[in-house]
Amino acid sequence: MAAPRSCALWGYYGRGWSRVMRGCRLPGLRSSWPGSPLGARLLSQEKRATETHFGFETVSEEEKGGKVYQVFESVAKKYDVMNDMMSLGIHRVWKDLLLWRMHPFPGTQLLDVAGGTGDIAFRFLNYIQAQHRRKQKRQLRTQQNLSWEEIAQKYQNEEDSLNGSHVVVCDINKEMLKIGRKKACAQGYKTGLAWVLGDAEELPFDDDKFDVYTIAFGIRNVTHIDRALQEAHRVLKPGGRFLCLEFSQVTNPLVSRLYDLYSFQVIPVMGEVIAKDWKSYQYLVESIRQFPAQEEFKEMIEDAGFQKVTYESLTSGIVAIHSGFKL
Ligand SMILES: COc1cc(O)cc(C/C=C(\C)CC/C=C(\C)CC/C=C(\C)CC/C=C(\C)CC/C=C(\C)CC/C=C(\C)CC/C=C(\C)CC/C=C(\C)CC/C=C(\C)CCC=C(C)C)c1O
Ligand SMILES: C[S@@+](CC[C@H](N)C(=O)[O-])C[C@H]1O[C@@H](n2cnc3c(N)ncnc32)[C@H](O)[C@@H]1O
């Protein structure tokens, strides 16, 4: 199955949000001269240049998107349970930490790219609501003369509690988004949340629209990481923040040995037993090893135009949070 292109819009809703949408861009036209020796050399160089990796496999750039699509289409239904099993719940702590580092203010417009089943978006909404409740409690303590009805009403309005904050979950995979939307309904998230089908490399949003851009465990799967980073920079408002949670390089040699053993000997087995899908989990562990280490990824973020780029390694460098600003 071919991956859908970024311009497809799916389930995009929410007050006033249509203004951030923009049209699809056509891919650039290229010409070559295959008849001439120079043309033939250019073509063969181009062929090599358009090769990439899918885990440890070498594939053409055109193929990679479709293969990644199949992986997440296949694992979507078991995605959440697999994450808890593989990490013994530790992925939840990493995601909570991402939110604490973001520390969103009331009114924050967040774009969560490769947002999948909504883990970052739900944490964002919870964070904003908890912040609002704390503020409300402080205010209520100072307003002693309110009736019970007035107090109850203050606690009821969910939309008020978001203070204009909004999160857009953008992902290329329909199946992942479908699970995310079901979870949102089941858990009662009604406002401040939109789901968009789109490609990190060609985001279907206007320039300068978001305060924060997040991508958690997503950028590793993108064919052209540099393009995704440039798109992140484009859609952020001046002053906006880029935050990426991704697998990284383990620094401690002993942890590294154990982690490798665990990754290659245990994770694909779990994938087979729980999700009936060895290959997708083999891809997961292989793709982790192909992803650049902390310093190299920092430089890529800087190359995309971000400033004040920093990172924090978590759990011995199994993952890292990279942060940068569009200034
Ligand atoms: C297809 O693409 C994807 C699909 C998805 O479902 C998800 C993603 C994106 C991924 C995530 C959101 C998170 C996924 C999480 C991981 C890949 C795992 C991350 C790993 C950890 C947090 C733990 C790291 C483990 C170590 C440092 C090594 C410790 C391991 C051992 C002591 C065991 C070594 C293993 C053997 C010798 C093999 C034989 C053992 C057994 C059969 C027993 C099984 C053992 C366990 C279950 C132990 C697991 C232990 C821990 C988790 C301990 C945690 C320790 C620390 C944090 C230091 C996606 O892209
Ligand atoms: C490991 S999941 C991460 C989901 C979620 N962010 C989380 O932390 O649980 C990776 C996600 O990246 C998405 N993805 C892969 N390539 C993409 C691309 N080019 N554009 C947007 N999303 C992409 C997949 O569909 C999948 O939902």
From TrEMBL:
<dbReference type="GO" id="GO:0008425">
    <property type="term" value="F:2-methoxy-6-polyprenyl-1,4-benzoquinol methyltransferase activity"/>
</dbReference>
<keyword id="KW-0831">Ubiquinone biosynthesis</keyword>
<dbReference type="InterPro" id="IPR029063">
    <property type="entry name" value="SAM-dependent_MTases_sf"/>
</dbReference>
<dbReference type="InterPro" id="IPR023576">
    <property type="entry name" value="UbiE/COQ5_MeTrFase_CS"/>
</dbReference>
<keyword id="KW-0472">Membrane</keyword>
<protein>
    <recommendedName>
        <fullName>2-methoxy-6-polyprenyl-1,4-benzoquinol methylase, mitochondrial</fullName>
        <ecNumber>2.1.1.201</ecNumber>
    </recommendedName>
</protein>
<comment type="function">
    <text>Methyltransferase required for the conversion of 2-decaprenyl-6-methoxy-1,4-benzoquinol (DDMQH2) to 2-decaprenyl-3-methyl-6-methoxy-1,4-benzoquinol (DMQH2).</text>
</comment>
<dbReference type="GO" id="GO:0110142">
    <property type="term" value="C:ubiquinone biosynthesis complex"/>
</dbReference>
<feature type="binding site">
    <location>
        <position position="117"/>
    </location>
    <ligand>
        <name>S-adenosyl-L-methionine</name>
    </ligand>
</feature>
<dbReference type="GO" id="GO:0031314">
    <property type="term" value="C:extrinsic component of mitochondrial inner membrane"/>
</dbReference>
<dbReference type="Pfam" id="PF01209">
    <property type="entry name" value="Ubie_methyltran"/>
</dbReference>
<comment type="subunit">
    <text>Component of a multi-subunit COQ enzyme complex, composed of at least COQ3, COQ4, COQ5, COQ6, COQ7 and COQ9. Interacts with PYURF; the interaction is direct, stabilizes COQ5 protein and associates PYURF with COQ enzyme complex.</text>
</comment>
<feature type="binding site">
    <location>
        <begin position="199"/>
        <end position="200"/>
    </location>
    <ligand>
        <name>S-adenosyl-L-methionine</name>
    </ligand>
</feature>
<keyword id="KW-0496">Mitochondrion</keyword>
<dbReference type="GO" id="GO:0005759">
    <property type="term" value="C:mitochondrial matrix"/>
</dbReference>
<feature type="binding site">
    <location>
        <position position="171"/>
    </location>
    <ligand>
        <name>S-adenosyl-L-methionine</name>
    </ligand>
</feature>
<keyword id="KW-0489">Methyltransferase</keyword>
<keyword id="KW-0949">S-adenosyl-L-methionine</keyword>
<keyword id="KW-0999">Mitochondrion inner membrane</keyword>
<dbReference type="InterPro" id="IPR004033">
    <property type="entry name" value="UbiE/COQ5_MeTrFase"/>
</dbReference>
<comment type="similarity">
    <text>Belongs to the class I-like SAM-binding methyltransferase superfamily. MenG/UbiE family.</text>
</comment>
<dbReference type="GO" id="GO:0032259">
    <property type="term" value="P:methylation"/>
</dbReference>
<comment type="pathway">
    <text>Cofactor biosynthesis; ubiquinone biosynthesis.</text>
</comment>
<keyword id="KW-0808">Transferase</keyword>
